[in-house]
Amino acid sequence: MLAWIKSLLTLFSSSRKEIAESSPPTAWQPEWTEFLLAKVAFYRVLHAEDRLLFNQRVLLFLSTTAIEGGQLVVSDNDRLLVAASAIIPVWGFKQWHYFNLKTVYLLPAAFNENIEFGRPDSLITGMVGTGRMANKLVLSRSALYLGFENTQDKQNVGIHEFVHLIDMMDGECDGYPERLKAHSFSIPWFELVGEKIEAIHARKSNIREYGATNRAEFFAVASEYFFERPKMLKKKHPRLFEKLEKFYQQDILQIEQDLQPKRNAPCPCGSAKKYKRCCLPTS
User: Fold this and answer.
1) How far apart are CA 105 and CA 141, in angstroms?
2) Choosing a second label site near 177 at 20 to 30 A (CA), which of 62, 90, 191, 243?
3) β-strands 66-69, 103-107: how paired?
């Protein structure tokens, strides 16, 4: 942990000038809306009033959370994707504030435990700080963007790491967010988690293997699945879907339905063909 802290401080102390030159605007910019519509599916299906609320929550998040870059200049687009990652899982909680987060550090690529990228062991794409690094989050910028570009792989590192922060709001990263649900809900939840982790180990689950690391990682991985592929999650894991829906208090299936193009609408791939003649799934 000490090496991790030293590496992080060294990396970001060398970027003070870039950080100062890339401070975020204090008011909503029209191009921000265009970017979110293009990149964030969740934002794209919100009604006009809810988009305005989302915008306000983005500004609030950016006003209370520093976003700094290591060997990169942080752009407004970077800030928007970090903020979207934070807001999506707590959209059902209008007064939510991450009081356990002060700074998000962005790195150009995946990194190792010493915050080094470009090394053979640079495989980490997100990490929540603890101890002396509490209230800090490190993200790979390339992985952050990929999480929003690919909405079918059940992975989004931004959402994953913010789910850990939600989990830790009660002081523990144990895979049970007491801030979202009463403690009495924990026993059946942990029983279900145990079953699902056993199924992953037995290779009888389509929940990705990293979810079997521990209960905290299972909660984060299952949450990624919930926000990216809710219809599939409900079909494959109905009890898990039901409990996550109660946690997050979001009608996420309606959001996915709104994302689905109509059969006779132009295909979103840009082919100029009708959706039913192009990319409509056949099964």
Assistant:
1) 9
2) 62
3) parallel
* Whole-angstrom distance, CA of residue 125 vs CA of residue 119: 13
Query: In sequence order, which ranges of 249-282 are alpha helices (DSSP H)?
Result: 252-259
pLDDT-derived band of residue 184, with 50, 70 and 90 as boundaries?
Answer: confident
C-beta separation of 29 from 59 below 8 A? no
Per-residue tokens: 53: 């609320």
Query: What separation in angstroms does the CA of 88 have from each of 35, 184, 201, 212?
Result: 16, 25, 29, 24
Residues 22-38: tens digit of each pLDDT: 566 679 999 999 999 99
Provide the residue count of the chain: 283
**The model's pTM:** 0.85
Which residues fall within 8 angstroms of residue 163, CB to CB, at 6 or more apart? 89, 219, 220, 223, 224
d(CA 18, CA 183): 45
Residue labelled with tokens 């039901």: 242
Mean pLDDT along residues 158-173: 94
